[in-house]
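User: hey, got a sec? need GTP cyclohydrolase-2 folded
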Amino acid sequence: MTEKIGVLGKKSPQRTGVERVVNAPLPTVYGKFQAVGYLDHDRGDEQVALVYGDLGTDDVLIRLHSECLTGDAFGSQHCECGDQLDAALRAVVAEGAGVVVYLRGHEGRGIGLLAKLRAMALQAEGLDTVEANLALGLPVDARDYGVAARILEDLGVRSVRLMSNNPRKREALVNHGIEVAEQVPLLIPPCENNITYLRTKRERLDHHLPHLDAVVSSS
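Assistant: Yep! Here you go:
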């Protein structure tokens, strides 16, 4: 642990870990959530968990949603992120309780917004999403889910039903001490603009996307 100099010249330990900073009501088109804000002292990222209802401790329905400005805010059809966020929030409300942890710093599977846009430009030239990252000298997936696990622990959650098609998210939560009782598919119908991207996620990143079979067989 590094140290910093306080105002009186005394050394004080630099804060580490994840700190809950604020809890505020957040009415949305889906329902009324509590927005619980956190500061990740290790990475400097500000994070938020959208909490709906009384969670309890076991088998809580959750989504770990990686930040995607183009999909979440701009409605990009290059990916299915915006539709997944919409579906996850609706599912939590329908369940009566649950959490969507919105993970900032995960843009482009952790490479950042500008690098993601560069990768998208390469994909427009014919590379797939994996090849594009590698061509830029970047990791295929640089995301870390430790902060998500710490947030769930702070919320009192011990085991989850994880809305995700990505087996790596399940493995990451388990490795960080969160039990995954069930992995709940979050399948979004593909469109012309993202079918190649989704096929690559299934074939090269091991995402469980069985709904693509009908599209593959008819193409």
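Quick note: The beta strands are 3-5, 11-13, 18-27, 32-40, 46-52, 60-66, 98-103, 159-163, 179-184. Let me know if you need anything else on GTP cyclohydrolase-2.
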